[in-house]
Design a protein that fits this description.
about 425 residues; FAD/NAD(P)-binding domain; 6 helices; about 15% helix; globular; FAD/NAD-binding_dom; Metab_Enz_Cyan_OpOx_G3PDH
């Protein structure tokens, strides 16, 4: 999966023995739905040598180990005919990128920057420095592990994130345990329960610090058929066990505590952008999303560097990430054709209980965001929120979304107000 052309012939630069230097036209870092779809369009459009880097042995990103169906089912442009299971969807994306002429390099990691658009890469062949006319960061998002959630206890076996669970079951066929507690009560927790079921593990409880949603999550398991207990307004305060997990200590909102016996706990959700490479390059991060700050054309503050997909917002479904990759590729093509790189633009900020907005920079008169809307997140349920956009105290937009705003689910805000923003004014503020 590493087709090399004449422009890829390496040489060792003077003063850097053992380091190979190459040039490409577009370097895409991350072989998930966003990166592969961007590479497909760029290669098909004749952007030159388009190279995708992925640290895994197989490209495809998170869908590789998501064995539930539905991938591509709501793809508005039929980039990949669906619905498909995750691994099939991942293979199709990779095959389409290759067919379009992109080069896919796996088991390689971009470790840092040696210049504005020069990346240092480590792989089986050694250390390389690759310089590109444009760089597309598509490194995705990851779940916050137990250690980062500051939950005390020892480090027993049986503590997993959703991704680790899915890889263990679907990619490696590992035995998991017999009784599990899933931390979370949203769609990702639902997928974790399905994966546990496939591994023959009973889910004894779903634990969520949030109140019940208006539409409760309802899950049933096969024999014995009984609903999965959902414990709302409850947190995990300790992992119990030495060597192997034996239980989790829970604290309810009213102060009651209890220990639930289990040999497996799965932490779901709580996604954070995998922004380490962007941070090492000095690319400004948005304080809300914690991903690179980008405008509606997916441009970062660094000329020639774009960012796309769940690196910008953890986490949207694969079809959204893929469509963002397709749209971003169009902006990359404009950059390669000589379109000037704009200034920093106007930052987009949010007020509590909103957590963040994406995209998070605006150039008045610039292209609209994907589907003509911004994505927001809220920290708590809002039955009928009224979203207001203002700049320096001047109201630009005010409207109620048609649906309630729920934690962990996207809230959409139309973008028609961007043209009314003052390019010389202050930050744009979204409040409820």
């Amino acid at each position: 999966m590493r087709p090399d052309g004449p422009s890829a012939r390496p040489h060792s630069p003077a003063g850097h023995p053992g380091i190979t230097e190459r040039t490409v036209d577009v370097l895409v870092v991350g072989g998930g739905p966003a990166g592969l779809t961007a590479a497909r369009r760029l290669a098909a459009a004749g952007a030159g040598r388009v190279e995708v880097l992925d640290r895994e042995r197989e490209p495809g990103g998170i869908p590789r180990h998501c064995f539930h169906g539905g991938f591509g089912a709501r793809d508005p442009r039929h980039l990949v005919p669906g619905p498909l299971h995750g691994p099939e969807y991942a293979r199709r994306l990779a095959a389409d990128a290759l067919s379009a002429g992109a080069a896919l390099r796996t088991s390689v990691t971009a470790t840092g920057w040696a210049g504005p658009r020069t990346l240092e890469i480590t792989g089986p062949g050694g250390i390389e420095r690759v310089t590109a006319r444009a760089v597309v960061l598509a490194t995705g998002a990851r779940e916050r592990p137990r250690a980062a959630r500051l939950i005390p206890g020892t480090r027993p076996a049986g503590v997993l994130t959703t991704g680790e669970l899915q890889q263990a079951v679907h990619l490696h066929g590992r035995r998991i345990g017999s009784r599990a507690v899933v931390v979370g009560a949203d769609a990702i927790a639902h997928n974790a329960v399905l994966t546990l079921r496939a591994a023959g593990v009973e889910t004894v409880a779903l634990v969520s610090s949030r109140p019940p949603l208006p539409v409760p999550l309802s899950l049933s398991l096969p024999r014995p058929r009984r609903p999965v207990t959902v414990l709302h307004r409850t947190t995990v305060t300790e992992l119990v066990g030495h060597g192997r997990l034996t239980g989790v200590r829970l604290r309810h909102e009213d102060g009651r505590t209890a220990v639930v016996a289990c040999d497996t706990v799965v932490f779901t959700g709580d996604w954070i952008p995998d922004h380490e490479l962007a941070r090492r390059g000095g690319i400004p991060l948005d304080p809300g999303t914690r991903g690179p700050a980008v405008d509606t054309a997916y441009r970062t503050a660094e000329p020639g560097v774009f960012a796309v997909g769940n690196l910008l917002h953890g986490v949207e479904r694969a079809g959204i990430a893929a469509e963002e990759g397709r749209v971003a590729a169009g902006q990359v093509l404009r950059h390669l054709a000589g379109e000037p790189w704009p200034g920093p633009g106007l930052p987009v900020r949010v007020g509590a209980p909103l957590l963040w907005a994406a995209p998070n920079r605006v150039h008045p008169g610039g292209p609209p965001p994907l589907y003509g809307r911004f994505i927001l997140r809220t920290a708590r349920p809002l039955a009928l929120p009224r979203l207001t956009v203002s700049q320096d105290g001047r109201i630009l937009y005010r409207r109620r979304p048609p649906l309630p705003a729920l934690p962990g689910r996207p809230v959409h805000l139309g973008s028609g107000w961007t043209s009314a923003a003052d390019p010389a004014g202050g930050a744009l503020l979204i409040t409820v």
